[in-house]
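Newbie here. two chains, one complex. Structure please?
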Amino acid sequence: MKTEKDKNIPYKIYLKEDEIPTQWYNVRADMKNKPAPLLNPGTLEPMKAEELYGVFCEELVKQELDNETPYIDIPGEIVSFYKMYRPSPLVRAYCLEEKLQTPAKIYYKFEGNNTSGSHKLNSAIAQAYYAKKQGLKGVTTETGAGQWGTALSMACSYFGLDCKVYMVKVSYEQKPFRREVMRTYGASVTPSPSTETEVGKKILSEHPGTTGSLGCAISEAVEKAVTSEGYRYVLGSVLNQVLLHQSVIGLETKKALDKYGIKPDIIIGCAGGGSNLGGLISPFMGEKLRGEADYRIIAVEPASCPSFTRGRYAYDFCDTGKVCPLAKMYTLGCDFIPAPNHAGGLRYHGMSSILSQLYDDKYMEAVSVSQTSVFEAAEEFARIEGILPAPESSHAIKVAIDEALKCKETGEEKNIVFGLTGTGYFDMVAYEKFHDGLMENYVPTDEELNESLAKLPEVK
Amino acid sequence: MKTEKDKNIPYKIYLKEDEIPTQWYNVRADMKNKPAPLLNPGTLEPMKAEELYGVFCEELVKQELDNETPYIDIPGEIVSFYKMYRPSPLVRAYCLEEKLQTPAKIYYKFEGNNTSGSHKLNSAIAQAYYAKKQGLKGVTTETGAGQWGTALSMACSYFGLDCKVYMVKVSYEQKPFRREVMRTYGASVTPSPSTETEVGKKILSEHPGTTGSLGCAISEAVEKAVTSEGYRYVLGSVLNQVLLHQSVIGLETKKALDKYGIKPDIIIGCAGGGSNLGGLISPFMGEKLRGEADYRIIAVEPASCPSFTRGRYAYDFCDTGKVCPLAKMYTLGCDFIPAPNHAGGLRYHGMSSILSQLYDDKYMEAVSVSQTSVFEAAEEFARIEGILPAPESSHAIKVAIDEALKCKETGEEKNIVFGLTGTGYFDMVAYEKFHDGLMENYVPTDEELNESLAKLPEVK
């Protein structure tokens, strides 16, 4: 036996099917300082529901703006869909603990065991459901690495909705297999920037030969939605509604831990736009906000795209084309694009308004990690725990290992919980670079950041 | 709700961790007509254990030759490893039933939720364990599509064994990501035929420019094993030992069905070398052999490589280089290579001796299906059940759907169980061909088959 097992705790804690949450938890209800409202890009006034209805589905707008209701019912059709791949396992990392020789107890919530390969499906199915309910023909979106696009394609296929995905051109070319999965689910996938939209044409004329960015693909998807009859735009991260849907991750995690009387000391999640981290921590953060319990909560971001650790808490555009509402968030500036050699995902310039407010209020910490250290952790984890992690998820693995090694020094038996958001089957080009010693660590200089931060819009 | 759910049966039936089998079931013990013995390629006499020790690990040789012991203990270390990804779910395909509007009840045992992406890990970890226990340095093997090579790499990494994989050249070139996953687990991967072995050199000189075959890669891996100090050869299918290890699939399936009082009417599995099918059906076949129950059992093979439905039951070489022992099996002749446009896996020229004997004794049926019909079923399944299936597994899906549609006509509420052996994340090139309408159906002519069958060795 390589591992010494706690008598009562299995390798994988599975909840029963009827223990899947039937309500999402809205952490905003427990926040004293609410996340700042979205602003109209023209007037810089807070967006009203009616103004958002042209872009987003109505029910989703309501969820976006609802800072008060703590629990929101999950419609039965969504719960049914969740049953196809949920509850997801909470895994006790016995093998990793043994390998590290740490007294810490490590748990991870594994969201990769579905065909989209990540947690993104939790929100995709909700957004597709409300689009269908509103009688829409379809939805538009952007995707970078492709996890969100894949998830949305699956969700739209389930409800018979059309799905138009703008995929960052460099990913479109480097990840033909992701594109092909989306096609399997009937989605149309267009490399961005494209000539299908005005904003795409404009970007192409200003930057011929550009390989695209997430912010630019967002602009195209939004334009397509608002100019097409029966379409709305959907987004896989950053938004309040997305964190609401992703609360199923945290609710299941908490229920599984509670079953075995385990109280986490440290909760760790990777953070790009914040969808996974926000979902994982939500019920724990709720307890913390209500003063019922305390947890150390750590957001992990790439050193090459460090919005929490080196960004500014300010209003910024959510997209490059500046057609979207402004959000108050930790941001590197909407023109910031991580270096092309950045392979580890989490490349959005901003961060969820909810998490930004919580971070600003010191309810959580953030650290940034270098790309090669992330891939070292990923490979170690793959070999020991038998799951090939997504580069994004591996940011959390890296810090979980670091914290477990600290426990080894101090002898503390801390309970460490982290989010393993997805699998890396479509990221083998990055792994190959790492194996071949061709992966570099890029960290933006202060000058670069100052340049893009200097362009932040002025909002009183 | 899209699906009407049976009150008591969840979407996914998960056994508890302590319900993972602790013994493998050896179906040979219940066979009146035992599978024919392996023959020495030089003398054509039955192989004795000592003769096999140079090629295979000793404990595995014993398992290979044991036709009598019905239950064989699974070592604790292997059970521990199984706990990292087992028990695998038995899924009730509510959504598929609803879509087909069939009164049939469809279940599938899903073996794809581990990083190797298939059931192959069940035997890989066993073979690596016995190699480690024997004090070996490492093992050699071949891989075609890459599932077996990936599984073995994971298993060897777990036990700290060296792993040398000969990968059919055409796959090596077309599936760089599979190769990269193996590298992540520390395996060395060589395109076959190579100049590393005498048999590889010989094949290259006779067929310059060949893209390789499974039979040829086997020859290279065996040569490497017997000429390297501290190495043995391991194989992912066909062998009796592999079917023994894979019995965990069937044992878990039966236990899960028994829990809910479900008796399958039809059991369906895809068949290449027979590892999945043999494992899935084993405890059911045991009951059938003992006269305790009856089940319809269907092997599904590709029309382009139809060993059961168009092959001959005869002694043949297991490899192209004719260095391996001979096995009595349904075979197309060891020189048979499926057409290069065959994308659906299951491309081995022969079939497990156990299954061949059972088929010859009429304990099971076999059907062959065309490639495009398999991909149609695969895409339908992906959209409805949310799992992107491996092309191999999709052969079983195709026939499960066919049988469910027959039930729709007759109104019979049959219980259909099939094996969903793995996921198709590394098969997107084939899916792309299918989407682009470039996939062809190739069926060998009688002349072609007769030509390769005419070369079968003469054995009295």
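Moderator note: The longest strand of chain B covers residues 162-168. Chain B has 18 helices and 15 strands. Thread marked as resolved.
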